[in-house]
Specification:
The structure holds two protein chains of two kinds. Chain A has helices spanning 21-30, 62-70, 102-112, 117-131, 146-157, 176-193, 203-209, 227-238; strands at residues 4-16, 35-47, 51-55, 77-83, 86-89, 164-168, 195-199, 212-217, 220-225. By secondary structure, chain A is an alpha/beta fold. Chain A is globular. The relative contact order of chain A is 0.18. By secondary structure, chain B is mainly alpha-helical. Chain B has one domain. Classes of the chains: A alpha/beta, B mainly alpha.
C-alpha cells in the first residue's frame, strides 16, 4: 500500500492548435498534426497529508496539471492515479445561472461538484451563513455583485471536504475582511483535508503553508523540493 | 460495471474516519469499449440529482426575463401553426376541418425533435465553462438538453385541452399517444446529435449545418402535411415511412382523435429501432471522442 495520494507517471498532454479548415485539410493529407504540448513527460508524486505548491510563469502548465489530476483532461501519454475523491477549486462563481436564485445556484453548483442531494440540503444553512448573503440568497444571481458571486462560489466549493483538494488561484476574492475570512477557511480546509495541491502566485503564502514546492517551466517540472530553494530557483530561471 | 463507474466519478464526497485506506486509482480514464452505451445509462441514473438541476437551469434559462414566461411554450407553437395554416390555405385552398390541429401538433412534435437535435449537437460547446471547471461524465450534457426539451414540449401539449373542448373531441385512452410521441421525437434527436457533438467542438460549422437540417426536415416530414395525405398520392406514399419522424407525428394526431396509430407495424418497429440504434451508436461515438474534443474548447 503506497503512501502517495496522487501519482503522475510520464504524463504528456497535447492541445490541438486552432486552425482554419484549409490548413486542416492540408495537414490531414500530409499526415501532420499541428499541436501544442502543454505537459511534457511530467512525473510527480504527492504524499498523503502533504501540502504541495506549484509555481511557474503563466502558461507553464500549472492549471493543466491540476486538470489532469481532477480528470478533466485524460493524459495523452502516461497516466495519473489518485487515492479518493478529488475536488478542484477554480474560477469560483463561473457557471452560475443569473436568472436563478443564489440558493438554487448553490444546489446546482454543489451537484456539479458531485455532492448528493442530502449533503447539499444539510450544508445550505452553513453556506448561506459563510457567504454572508443573508436575504440576497433568494434573489436572482444576476443582481449580485462579482464579490457576492465569488463568496457564494467559495462557500459552496469549500463546504464539503474531499480527500484530495486542488486549489487554482482562488485566494483573494471579495473585500479585505472576506479575503481574510476566505484565507482562513481555505487554510482550515487545507488542514482538515490533508492532501492539497495548490497553484498560486503569492509566494509568501506558499512559503507558510506548503511542505514542498514544484517549479514548472514550459510544460516540464524543473525541480521539486524545499519552498525557499524552489522560489530562489524560480527567480534564477525566469529572471526577476 | 458499477465498480467501474464508481472509479470515474468524483462521487458524492463523504468524509468518515473509519473508512478503508484509500487506494490509488486511475484518473481521467474513459470507457470507450462497446459497453460504453450501457455504462452511460447507469451513469445517468446515478447522477439523477445533477441531471435534475441542470434540466431546471436549462428550462429556467429559456424563458428568463419574459413577462409571459412559460406561457410562451403554448403561444409559440400556436403562432407558428397559424402562420402555416394561413400558408396552406393560400396554396392548397380549403383544408380539412381538423387541419389546424394537425399542424399544431406537428409543430410541437417537430419542435421537440429539432430542439433536442440541435441542443445535443451544441451540448458540449455551450457548456465549455462547466467542462473546464469540473469533471463529471459528459454524457450528462446531451441528456440534459434532451430532457429539458421534452419537458418544454410537454408543457406545449397543454394547448390541446382547450382545443379538445372546442372541437368536442372525446377523452380516450389513445390520448396517451401524445406524450409518448413527444418522448419519442426527443429521443430520435439525441442519437444523431451525440454523434456530431464532439465534432462541433472542433468546428462550429456543424451547429450551423444542423440548424439548416432541422429547418429543411420540417418540410420533408409530415408537419404541414400528414401521413394520410402522402398515402393519397399513390405509389410513393409508403416511402415516407423511411422517415423515422413520421411515426411520432402520426401517433400524436391519431391520439387526439382517439384512434390507434394506424401505421403498418413494420414502420413503427423500424422507427423505434432506428431511434435505439442511433442512440447506442451515438452514445458510443460520444464517449469515444468527447475527451479529445473538449481540448478544442
Amino acid at each position: 500500500m503506497s503512501s502517495n495520494a496522487v501519482e503522475i507517471e510520464n504524463v504528456t498532454l497535447h492541445f490541438p492548435k486552432q486552425r482554419n479548415a484549409l490548413s486542416m485539410l492540408i495537414n490531414v493529407f500530409r499526415g501532420k498534426k499541428e499541436r501544442f504540448t502543454a505537459l511534457r513527460n511530467v512525473s510527480l508524486s504527492v504524499k498523503k497529508g502533504e501540502v504541495l505548491g506549484v509555481i511557474g510563469k503563466n502558461g507553464s502548465g500549472k492549471s493543466t496539471l491540476l486538470r489532469i489530476i481532477s480528470g478533466i483532461y485524460p493524459a495523452d501519454e502516461g497516466y495519473c492515479e489518485a487515492a479518493g475523491s478529488v475536488s478542484l477549486l477554480a474560477g469560483l462563481g463561473t457557471g452560475f445561472s443569473g436568472h436563478q436564485t443564489g440558493r438554487e445556484n448553490a444546489i446546482l453548483y454543489g451537484s456539479i461538484l458531485g455532492h448528493s442531494e442530502s449533503v447539499m440540503v444539510d450544508k445550505i444553512p452553513e453556506i448561506i451563513q459563510f457567504s454572508e448573503l443573508e436575504a440576497f440568497i433568494d434573489e436572482p444571481v444576476r443582481t449580485y455583485s462579482s464579490g457576492m458571486k465569488a463568496r457564494l462560489g467559495l462557500a459552496v466549493a469549500t463546504a464539503i471536504h474531499p480527500d484530495i483538494l486542488l486549489i487554482d488561484e482562488v485566494l483573494g476574492v471579495g473585500d479585505p475582511q472576506f479575503k481574510e475570512k476566505s484565507k482562513k477557511r481555505i487554510l482550515d480546509l487545507v488542514k482538515s483535508t490533508g492532501t492539497v495541491v495548490l497553484v498560486s502566485h503569492s509566494f509568501g503564502l506558499m512559503k507558510d503553508i506548503c511542505d514542498r514546492l514544484v517549479f514548472m517551466h514550459k510544460g516540464k517540472i524543473v525541480d521539486v523540493g524545499d519552498p525557499e530553494e524552489i522560489i530562489k530557483l524560480y527567480y534564477e530561471t525566469t529572471g526577476s | 460495471m458499477t465498480m467501474f463507474i464508481d472509479k470515474l466519478l468524483p462521487s458524492a464526497i463523504t468524509m468518515s474516519d473509519e473508512r478503508q485506506p484509500l487506494k490509488l486509482e486511475k484518473v481521467g480514464g474513459r470507457n470507450t469499449s462497446w459497453k460504453a452505451p450501457l455504462v452511460n445509462i447507469s451513469t445517468i441514473l446515478k447522477h439523477r440529482f445533477l441531471v435534475r438541476n441542470l434540466v431546471r437551469r436549462e428550462i429556467r434559462g429559456r424563458y428568463r426575463n419574459a413577462m409571459l414566461g412559460y406561457t410562451w411554450t403554448v403561444i409559440e407553437p400556436l403562432l407558428l401553426a397559424s402562420v402555416y395554416y394561413f400558408l396552406f390555405v393560400m396554396l392548397a385552398g380549403n383544408p380539412d376541418r381538423m387541419y389546424p390541429i394537425w399542424v399544431l401538433l406537428g409543430v410541437i412534435i417537430w419542435g421537440c425533435f429539432g430542439r433536442s437535435l440541435s441542443g445535443s449537437v451544441s451540448s458540449l460547446s455551450r457548456n465549455a465553462q462547466t467542462i473546464h471547471l469540473v469533471y463529471f461524465p459528459r454524457i450528462i450534457f446531451p441528456t440534459t438538453s434532451m430532457i429539458g426539451n421534452m419537458v418544454i414540449s410537454m408543457m406545449s401539449c397543454l394547448v390541446i385541452i382547450p382545443i379538445m373542448i372546442a372541437y368536442e373531441l372525446p377523452v380516450t385512452i389513445h390520448l396517451i399517444l401524445i406524450p409518448l410521441s413527444v418522448l419519442f421525437s426527443g429521443f430520435l434527436g439525441i442519437g444523431l446529435g451525440m454523434i456530431v457533438a464532439p465534432l462541433n467542438c472542433m468546428q462550429r460549422d456543424v451547429e450551423h449545418l444542423f440548424r439548416f437540417i432541422v429547418r429543411a426536415g420540417f418540410f420533408l416530414s409530415p408537419v404541414m402535411w400528414t401521413y394520410e395525405m402522402a398515402l393519397e398520392r399513390g405509389m410513393f406514399g409508403e416511402m415516407v415511412l423511411f422517415n423515422p419522424m413520421v411515426v411520432p407525428l402520426t401517433m400524436a394526431r391519431h391520439g387526439i382523435v382517439g384512434e390507434s396509430i394506424g401505421i403498418p407495424w413494420i414502420g413503427i418497429i423500424g422507427s423505434i429501432g432506428f431511434g435505439i440504434i442511433m442512440w447506442i451508436f451515438g452514445s458510443y461515438v460520444f464517449s469515444k471522442y468527447e475527451a479529445g474534443a473538449v481540448k478544442h474548447l
